[in-house]
Amino acid sequence: MAEHPQYLSEKLELDQCLNKGFLIYDIRDHLNGTDVLLKKTETDETMIVHLGNANARKYATTMLTLQMASERRAT
Length: 75
Known about the structure:
The protein is of the alpha+beta class.
């Protein structure tokens, strides 16, 4: 049960970045979790969100999949 608050915190951090106009640019897995690299295309501003919770990492890949699907529909 202790992992659920961590998941909610990491999900909220990622959602806040996405709501500010950042797009997922890259996802890098390593032994300590996952780094999600985010970038604003109009300003080239970058940000890194570290995810340690497995469910938050799954959520990030789901958000990347949705982002890619919407980009595909736009072209």
